Amino acid sequence: MEESKLNFLQYYLTTLEYPSGITKQQERYITSQNKHYFVYNDRVYRRHDNTPRLVLNKTEADNCIWMYHFHPIAGGHFAFQNTYEKIARKYYSEGMRKDLFDAVSQCNYCQRLGKPIKNEILRPIPVPSEPWTLCGLDIKHCPTSRSGMKYIIACADYTTKWIEARAVRLANATEVALFIYEKIISRHSQPKAVIVDNGLPVSKNIVKEVCKQFSIELRTCSVYTPTSNGFIEQLNQVLGRLLKKRPKHEIDDWCQYLPAALFVYRTIKQNSTKQSPFKLLYFHEAMTPFDKIMEDTSYIGEDNEDWSLDEFNKKLENQINALQNVRQQAAASIEVSQHNQRKTIERKILAKKKHLIQPPFKIGDTVLVYNNAIETSWTGKLEQTWLGPYIVDLVNVNTMDPLQDFQETQNSQDNNPFSVDTNQNLGSFSLPGIQILDLSLPPEIIMELQIYIFHEQYRKKIKEKRIEIVNQLKETIKDNNTLREVCRNRRRNKGIIEILSANDLDTKTLTKDTQFQRCLGEQW
What we know:
Strand 6 (about 150-155) and strand 7 form a beta hairpin. The chain has 3 domains: about 5-115, Orthogonal Bundle (Endonuclease III, domain 1); about 115-265 and about 300-355, Ribonuclease H-like superfamily/Ribonuclease H (Nucleotidyltransferase, domain 5), CATH 3.30.420.10; about 365-520, no CATH class. It has helices at about 5-15, 25-35, 60-70, 80-90, 95-105, 110-115, 175-190, 200-205, 205-215, 230-245, 250, 260-265, 275-280, 290-295, 310-345, 405-410, 455-475, 480-490; strands at about 35-40, 45, 55, 90, 135-140, 150-155, 165-170, 195, 215-220, 365-370, 385-395, 435-440, 450-455, 505-510, 515-520. By secondary structure, the chain is of the alpha/beta class. It comes from Circinella minor.
């Protein structure tokens, strides 16, 4: 909310008089809106579902958006809806929804690491109403951190969606057994059942013996069917995206930022339960760093110093009953959500699980290219999902006869009327201009997209630069086999996607499954 408008509103709510010097339009605004606000401790609050929300000015709103989206503990780079609902529980500012949407849409990390949309068959698991009755456990492989951590053992409650996780060096049965005892049993009591996969660490006798001693049923998933424990598999992906969105210099220390990522997830409102895991477990929302900065007093409670013992017991009983009702409502909400999701998925008729959604890109658009390497490589766990940004420099559209030679069609592209010069200023991007050749082929021929770096007049320079690099390598590497291996590795990017570099490569061929998305400018 604008500073002047907020001051005028606060003055009227305090004195019940209009400020001097305001316009008729401002007076009408105060008259129509004052019923939604009140003043407490010299701050303006907005009434909302029995929970007052602190009204922020423009500067405070910008700081709030930064804190709740970009901060490693309070934010974690969650999507727009989750971030907005987390803010709206405590704070209000006119225009904040649009400002937050713009910030999330233009976030550099979120654009590069956004997941592609997939449609999978939904097999819902009945969820109990009591917390930590049914939970799922899984082990996630990650790049080795500076401290030697390679894996994340994670366990999540199906009811509250609360997640516990620990970074470990070895994914063995001893670590899994200690995790179950220290992180689950000692903190949340023993669950009735734990869903696990068929991996070696959880199939050892020590894990089975721990579960047997505490009367825990160890349920194993179907072989090669991770969807049977889809909840924890999805949470592992969420943890991976949260850690990938850390700055590059912090990626190698991902284990140090794992607790912050867990806290962020625990305080996000879940679509299925309509509550955050933190509230379902503790019956109040978590305090974030921004709340401390603002010295939040949005929770206006009663003074409990004068309560008698009977009054205190009655209040406590009411609170316990209210917590039980909230958990039962969450369990019912999960059932409704599962039913709606299943109906939605069943309505969709998909020829393929993954398909190309090609927007109408134009010359000059900034785009990101989907990195398929992360789907087939272990080393892609914390790699960026989208590569770029790149600038569309050439768009070729050729409709070819099924019998026409593909190479002949490529040779005819020089006369394409859409060709433009790439010698242009690329602004803040340090990457060269690219050409995107969109070949609209009949169904009998595979559609290919070829991205060229520079025009023909620059390819000679690229070749000379490549020869220069090889000559430099020859001076230090005498063995020809080693030299070929080094040169080959310079043209790879995790085995599938080749590096788009003027030093190493002229062209890049993408299959029809390659996905593109627009890249928005960075504002935050």
